[in-house]
Write a structure and sequence with these properties.
Blueprint lengths: L2 E8 L7 E2 H4 L7 E6 L5 E5 L12 H14 L7 E3 L2 H4 L13 E3 H11 L2 H12 L2 H14 L22 H12 L5 H4 L3 E4 L7 E4 L4 H4 L3 E9 L3 E10 L2 E10 L2 H18 E7 L6 E4 L7 E6 L3 E6 L5 E9 L13 E7 L2 E10 L8 H14 L5
Parallel strand pairs: 2-4
Antiparallel strand pairs: 1-16, 3-4, 3-11, 5-6, 7-8, 9-10, 10-11, 12-15, 13-14, 14-18, 16-17, 17-18
Helix pairs in contact: 2-5, 2-7, 4-5, 5-6
Length: about 375
């Protein structure tokens, strides 16, 4: 395959990881991590690959699968789901669903994101996969597909059970995947709401993440607590164009959890900034295809690429390689035709799929003839 190498000079400096002990950000937590969401770069970490009980942060993976089903059209927000006896029997945080009761997917999502309701998440798990066990299998398959090494789920709720664990790093990776489904933030950012409005069973929900109300820019994501896990939190906040994701595991109190999460996020917002590198409209390469209508195919990234910079640092020297793996037409915009890898100092720091900037269709005989005549008359040589 033909490779295109372009060297660019940007005003960014590659971030170095900083140990929590040096900063005093999360001294009370068993583990923690802070990343920038669009780049995935780590700003801070402490014991981030150690395995601990994740409590209800487990529901982040449950929500990923639910959002995928919604986007595929297999679920709709206004669909009413009937509650099973199994779902109704869930302990821990709940909205006291009754067997046979029906509730919309929209309200079940509120119950999960705001109230951390175990009965609600099992109801949707059963709707999607038939049983919670089958849903958990899908959760673990998703974990494997994401390349996460320190996570294993035994249920969809996060209730303590043997061999149910995750790590701060893995939870941050799952959170990063979840916030790509932007609709979820409309739920996780709710501080208080009601379910079963206009009924005798009206239920008041208040977000288990109190930082939603007190921390500037916070709109998610998921708290957790069990005796084994302690107080946990995966939080996300956005200011200007930068979204941070923080994970804290194993705090002794909710107050200390919130305090150290706030300190960690403050550190990130105070010292770092994000700038655009490439967008989905940036032409990163071109290749020739004589059978297409235009004869030339422009290549663009499938998503924006940002770079995290520590404020005040010097220029950064980056390069990218473009590898085209598919040239056969027709090609629709959005079809993956290869990948782009961004490098610094010969080290790959990002890898992203590429597509075409518009649909590429096959030219008919007349179009090919006219283009050949034009090329002969103008002497144009498409490279």
């Amino acid at each position: 395959m033909k490779k295109v190498l372009i060297v660019l000079f940007l005003s960014f400096m590659f971030i170095t990881n900083v140990k929590a002990e040096d900063l005093g950000l999360t001294e009370s937590a068993k583990s923690s991590i802070l990343i920038e969401a669009s780049t995935g770069e780590i700003i801070h970490e402490s014991n981030s690959n150690e395995r601990y009980a994740p409590a209800s942060m487990t529901k982040i993976m449950s929500l990923i699968l639910i959002m995928e089903e919604l986007e595929k059209g297999n679920l709709s927000l206004d669909e009413k789901v009937k509650v099973s006896a199994t779902a109704a029997s869930m302990g821990g945080s709940q909205i006291y669903l009754e067997a046979g009761e029906e509730m919309t997917v929209n309200d079940l999502l509120k119950a999960i994101c705001v109230g951390s309701a175990n009965d609600a998440v099992v109801t949707l798990a059963e709707r999607i996969s038939g049983t919670e066990e089958a849903f958990v299998f899908k959760m673990n398959e998703k974990v494997k597909s994401m390349g996460l090494k320190n996570t294993n789920f035994k249920n969809a709720t996060g209730l303590d059970t043997a061999n149910h664990y995750s790590s701060a790093y893995d939870m941050a990776s799952m959170a990063r995947e979840l916030v790509r489904h932007k609709k979820i933030l409309e739920y996780s950012g709710i501080y208080e709401t009601y379910l079963r409005q206009n009924t005798k069973n009206k239920f008041w929900l208040v977000n288990t993440n109190k930082l939603i109300k007190t921390y500037d820019g916070m709109d998610g994501l998921k708290t957790g607590y069990t005796k084994e896990a302690g107080y946990c939190l995966t939080a996300t906040a956005k200011r200007n164009n930068m979204r941070l994701i923080g994970v804290i595991m194993g705090e002794e109190t909710s107050a200390k959890r919130n305090e150290e999460m706030s300190k960690m996020l403050d550190y990130g917002f105070n010292l770092y900034t994000v700038k655009g590198y490439l967008t989905t409209k940036t032409k990163v390469g071109t290749f020739k295809n004589d059978k297409s209508k235009t004869g030339r195919v422009n290549v663009v990234p499938t998503q924006d690429i940002n770079v995290l910079n520590k404020k005040g640092n010097k220029d950064r020297k980056l390069s990218y390689n473009l590898e085209i793996t598919k040239k056969d037409i027709p090609i629709k915009k959005g079809d993956v035709i290869g990948y782009l890898s961004v490098h610094e100092n010969n080290k790959e720091i990002y890898k992203i799929n590429v597509t075409v900037d518009e649909n590429v269709e096959r030219a008919n005989i007349l179009e090919l003839l006219l283009r050949n005549i034009k090329d002969i008359m103008t002497g144009e040589n498409i490279m």
